[in-house]
Design goal:
Blueprint: H1 2-6, E1 21-27, E2 34-39, H2 41-44, E3 49-55, E4 64-69, H3 72-81, E5 83-87, H4 96-107, E6 113-118, H5 121-127, E7 130-138, E8 150-156, E9 159-164, H6 169-180, E10 187-191, H7 205-217, E11 222-225, H8 228-233, E12 241-249, E13 255-264, H9 267-276, E14 300-307, H10 322-339, H11 344-353
Parallel strand pairs: 1-11, 9-10, 13-14
Antiparallel strand pairs: 1-4, 2-5, 3-4, 6-14, 7-12, 8-9, 8-11, 12-13
């Protein structure tokens, strides 16, 4: 705490090695795209620019171009001077608003994995004196960590050393070894403080970029840093999600049944595939957490999720499913309480006691 208070704490971005250079990465603005052609003459002509290197797409990331400079500022100026023609790839026409409509439509389909199913929900709705329903949506969200995405790496004498803000040193080591073409035993990871992680630094795309560049620039140490624009447009986002919630009430305003149908991407299968090359392992409960585990004791309850994989990468985002689903659930509790003519707090306490 004292070090963080007085500014002496060392975060990943504070790594400094003798002779260190800096690389600013520019990536295709369309996720999954690549470099079609590159004119780097103007960038190379700028004072302080030391070189230009292409970087590959690693672990779900996007290919791009790195400008190497004496300082971050020199590298950033060089990156701004690049003339790149991008091959946009399959996601050029992706529209996140239209994707929200797709998810909302999926919520109305009579399908999905049931994370909770108890009582006769359908019979309760048929005999209900009144039904209440609402549709909710949540957008894709970037992590927007305070510390920019960065990693410092040095390849020397057949060994790779990393200085990084990472939540998963063992996975970072594996990814760096693959990118540098060495064995994991030849990679050392120095973990520095994280200026915010929230799940973004579980990913290793930027780690692999640094390892690739360090191998190309050996033995010069290089710090890879992303401008904020690249960070926001090349994240592994919190999934967009839609949910359709319904409640069946009797003549006295008592809840007879509670039904939830949500739709959105599944994080766990994507992470397993891009990090380890493994297939998914059954239903991903993070898609429905905050909905299927609601604490209220409704007599009949069904909570299902329809997995709709987006064409953009998604990942763990602080609190994961609860960040959106708990909001959906509690907002709907307020709506049902109002429809039942009940105080929202009294309504909650009553059904908590029946759990």
């Amino acid at each position: 705490v004292p070090a963080k208070t007085d500014g002496s704490a060392r975060f990943g971005i504070d790594a400094r090695l003798p002779g260190q250079v800096y690389a600013v990465v520019t990536m295709c603005p369309t996720l999954g795209g690549s470099v079609a052609s590159l004119d780097d003459q103007a960038a190379r002509a700028l004072p302080g620019v030391l070189g230009v290197e292409r970087v590959g797409a690693h672990h779900g990331g996007t290919a791009g171009v790195a400008v190497v400079g004496k300082t971050t500022w020199h590298a950033r100026q060089g990156a701004d001077a690049l003339r790149v023609q991008w091959a946009d790839g399959p996601n050029a026409a992706f529209d996140s608003d239209a994707w929200g409509d797709t998810l909302a439509a999926a919520c109305k389909r009579d399908e999905g994995f049931a994370f909770t199913s108890q009582g006769d929900v359908d019979a309760a709705f048929k005999s209900a004196a009144r039904t209440v329903e609402a549709e909710y949506r949540a957008p894709f969200l970037a992590h927007a960590t305070m510390e920019p995405i960065n990693c410092t790496a040095q390849f020397k004498d057949g060994k790779l050393a990393l200085w990084a803000s990472t939540q998963v040193p063992s996975i970072a080591r594996m990814a760096a070894a693959q990118a540098a073409g060495v064995g994991a035993r030849d990679v050392s990871v120095n973990v520095l403080l994280l200026g915010g992680g929230f799940g973004r630094r579980l990913e290793v795309d930027f780690i692999a970029q640094a390892a690739e560049l360090a191998r190309k620039l050996s033995p010069t140490p290089v710090q890879v840093i992303w401008p904020r624009e690249e960070d926001m447009t090349h994240d592994f986002y919190r999934p967009a999600q839609a949910a359709w919630l319904r409640a069946a009430l009797d003549a006295n305003g008592e809840v007879m049944a509670w039904a939830v149908q949500s739709a959105g991407g599944a994080i766990v299968p994507q992470v397993l595939k891009r990090v380890w090359g493994l297939p998914g392992a059954g239903p991903d409960k993070t898609t429905s957490e905050g909905l299927f585990d609601t604490p209220y004791g409704f007599a009949a309850r069904r909570v299902r999720h329809v997995t709709q994989e987006p064409p953009v990468p998604i990942g763990f985002w602080r609190s994961v499913g609860y960040s959106m689903n708990a909001c959906f659930s509690e907002a709907f509790v307020d709506e049902v309480a109002q429809a039942a003519g009940s105080d929202p707090l009294a309504f909650r306490l009553k059904y908590l006691q029946q759990a």
